[in-house]
């Protein structure tokens, strides 16, 4: 039998199971790390990872570094085999190190590898390296400080720090150390920055305040006042300046390279509108987002509406932690998903191959840069946190989880509801004026946004849109609920309660922008919203509002210098609620009821005149001072709905005089007891 015949026979007996058309090859295994060395190193040193399932070649693996509580940093590795990766710690790691007193310090980073697939997990704490700001590993050959294979005696710059050995001898820096003071910044960069700071006159590194190659504490100093510390400017230059001169980022020049106009299409980066870009307004990593708007630029200044859009430091502010998944740029918006920040020294912060400006941090389908530019161009009442809010401009976005909710419980999901919070303002209107479309009361002052909006328009008189400024009723002013804007005797909060009681109609049935809402001659305060026989004012702040009213009234209407009228010492009777026709729930309307149980209705005791109280009243109590009562004396003139002893000595009046309570002097004895019933 020939060889071919044998092969054909075997194929007939054991047929090959062919892959179906279009079937993909087996997916690569997950890369894993078994050993990391060295365990302590610095920026500029090389880390070696040993493990399996790495990708052979140069630049085919990405090493991800992450400190606890920080964001991940993606670093392309150099040469690698299936089992070994070597990666040089880049300068951009300086921006991710923990800080102490503003200086970067040695920090432990967990490590993970992205090869054909992402490793399943980061290294354990004990197996994770500690990385410091300056290189720690000594050169392999002592006679070749920079390892460039050129012996020191032939090398004009032994440590490759851009300073000639002869100059280093003059400056007293270490000619065999790229970073003499160990602060993470090379001697050459600090010296060049000092020259920039001094107008190119030669300074000495033995003196401050110049960026100083012999001062280990100047990393945290912002010598040129551009908003970036020395070490951050060094990190930008070392990451994207190719270790070349002139410096692309200098610690001695706030606008490194000159105060030239912004490049075409980059005018938006000139946030202070001074005609040029400072180093903090530039874009080191070329992702389209200015440095100041991304994470890693250090502790931010006071957060405003013009900085910090994607800064992790901003997103992680203490104010955020108090309200789960809320970013406080212009006030809380509960959009459920917390956004991740970006890095100013990494054009693709999340490693998804999309540069940060074109990426979509909040998952609403609109690029970061597009949303940032829209936000910057918005008016004061149109700040919507666009770059960080997946629910703007639409709750239909994939990551806007509130779209499926029904916040106002009206039977329609937010996605199908034009007024999600049921405050009588459409979502688009609320977004336009900076109100929260998911909260009926944005400023939490107990008054709904819609009521404040329409009251403000009433007060403004001409239909001008809600201005968002005081003294109008303002959905963004949490301190205006107690103000009576229209001067009718009812506060904003009280008119809102009256409007809600009537069913929240539009146009408003009660408005804090109109004294006679709906027309007519009757003030809103003189109406009786709950139809209980007592006016709104009398129940809100007038005679039926509580004992405090009578104490104040008597003080302001004294009958003589010696006159006293003490507050009733018995039970503290409660005032009436103007939007509850039966405040005590006994089945009687408040006007016909009797708060103090003295036999007179609340309506009857809720009317008082000074002339009756002082001029008509005649004393009837024991030991009284003998009030004459005027031409038509009236024993029942002094009535008080919260005093069962006036105007009559009722069955609810106390039977024993409290000691030392009622006033008695030689000139006057207080009349505490009214007429016998």
Verbal overview:
The protein is α+β, with helices and mostly antiparallel strands. It is 17% helix and 7% strand. The chain contains 14 helices and 13 strands. The protein has helices at residues 3-13, 165-171, 187-197, 230-240, 312-315, 318-322, 368-376, 427-432, 449-460, 492-501, 536-540, 547-556, 602-605, 610-616, and strands at residues 32-37, 40-42, 46-52, 57-58, 62-66, 73-76, 79-80, 84-88, 99-100, 103-104, 107-108, 110-114, 130-132. It has a 3-stranded antiparallel sheet, with no helix packed on it. The protein has a 3-stranded mixed sheet with strand order 2-13-11, with no helix packed on it. The radius of gyration is 39 Å and the shape is elongated. The model is unreliable at 1-24, 300-306 and 317-337 (pLDDT under 50).
Largest sheet: 3 strands, antiparallel
Shape: elongated
Strand order of the largest sheet: 1-3-8
What is the helix fraction of residues, given as a range?
10-25%
Low-confidence stretches: 1-24, 300-306, 317-337
Can you write the helix and strand succession as a string? HEEEEEEEEEEEEEHHHHHHHHHHHHH
Report the C-alpha radius of gyration, rounded. Answer: 39 Å
Topology, number of strands: 13
Terminal residue distance: 136 Å
* Percent of residues in beta strands: 5-15%
Average residue-wise pLDDT: 84
The secondary structure category is: alpha+beta
Number of helices: 14
